[in-house]
Amino acid sequence: MPITTIDPTTALVVVDLQGAAPHMPTVHPFDQVLANAVELTDAFRAKKLPVVLVNVAGGAPGRTEQGFAASAAALPDGWTDLLPELGAQPGDKTVTKYTWGAFHRTDLAEHLRGLGVTQVVVCGIATAIGVESTARQAHEHGFHVTLPLDAMTDLDAAAHENSATRIFPRLGETGTTSEVLALIGA
Fold it and tell me: Which domains does the chain have, with CATH numbers?
């Protein structure tokens, strides 16, 4: 379905485009996902709309079958560094998260409300983990949610497809980077 509306005060939230992300075995070409995310960040900045750059520096401490509960101290050098292509600016909000979603135990919701934001456009990696969790939390905080599917990818095709076709339509609107750009007048 196409994206129908972008509110006047919409923020872009870019999730986990950092460190080793370009070297992960993603199901969509990472270079194109990154290029779309960069196009969105540039356009949002040009329109003076808020940009939030999110990185992950650990994991929730609970046991999982996959056994990943990394602490920041155990991560390789450069893991949390935002990709330079994003061109982080002083006016951007940077959020470091320690769980899948960018709203849990951060000041992101308060920051966005303070700016009068009513809608978020969420993109990044991985679709079914950081992006979906952030989108769910944004929805739970009362923000309108928009998800440009060509600006995200996952390590698992079925997980990406499930999020894109079953979960995201319940949280907001899905579409493409070009639809978002057209609606913000970029």
Answer: 10-183 (3.40.50.850)
